[in-house]
Amino acid sequence: MSAKAYPGQEAIKEKGWLAAYKWLILRRASQLIILLLFLLGPWFGVWIVKGNLTSSLILDVVPLSDPFILLQSLIAGHVAASTAIIGAAIVMGVYLLLGGRVYCSFVCPMNFVTDVSRWIAKRFDLPKGWKPARETRLWILAAVMIAAFVTGVMAWEMLNPVTVLHRGLVYGLSYTWTVALAIFIFDMVVSRRGWCGHLCPMGAFYGLIGSVSLLRVSAKRRTACNDCMDCFAVCPEPHVITPALRGANTGTGPVILSGDCTNCGRCIDVCSKDVFEFDVRFNNAAPANEGRADTDAVSTDRHAA
Ligand code: SF4
Ligand code: SF4
What we know:
Layout: H1 9-15, H2 17-44, E1 49-51, E2 55-58, E3 62-65, H3 67-75, H4 82-98, H5 102-107, H6 110-123, H7 136-151, H8 161-171, H9 176-190, H10 194-199, H11 201-210, E4 215-218, H12 230-234, H13 241-245, H14 266-270, E5 277-280
Antiparallel strand pairs: 1-2, 2-3, 4-5
Helix pairs in contact: 1-2, 2-8, 3-7, 6-9, 7-11, 8-9
The structure holds iron/sulfur cluster (SF4) (2 copies).
């Protein structure tokens, strides 16, 4: 069983199973708890949270709104209620602190679907398939906003797989499974990690927030890296790792600044050398005496999804 085929084996040996899966477990717990909070009302009449991921009210007091949806609504020409604006400001504030794509890794119900699809594809060594340009999701994001402006309605929300999946789960709609299955098969057969990695406009939107957010992953102890490549193998966006991990010889700081990083913490989990940790984006000075002996430029694609 090689560490490359099964990333994280060295970390399990060095740190123990729990430490090597800590952030993955926390992520799944977060996804499940958030979904359960939404289900408690419709299923058991316990209304801690009313609504869905688009717009909700916690304990009848705190409004939460998805800023991606609010933006579409405003561009479509709708007048936003003050609770929607306050709710979006709260959500924006949280993601500006914790990282925009924390939405993807800790909240979005589609993440579990695409993670399972990717896991199976890797285990069976299926072809990676079509690889759209990374900017594609930004173009789709622009198209979503243009569609709202032209049609005067939030046209994308009628199709948005994330919205459809979450509403379907909360309100028990049968076509939910069709949407989840379509993305699952698309990612497995047509384009590995294609939906979240290249196409989803919500991911693109939250990635833009993430490009200025405070909490970041830092390759703080990058001189300890033994080039096992396990972090690249598990990362859903492996291109974000290289500048921070390999930047010692170019004076680049150790913080992963790209908004594409989902702050999922899997690189922290699987690193047996404890290279990575959460930090703030401003702690990005490259230590003066850091210099690594090796100058290899390791391809991020070697173990990319
Ligand atoms: S990229 Fe889109 S579908 Fe994927 S986890 Fe993020 S919001 Fe959800
Ligand atoms: S760099 Fe680390 S935290 Fe960021 S997406 Fe990759 S595995 Fe997750």
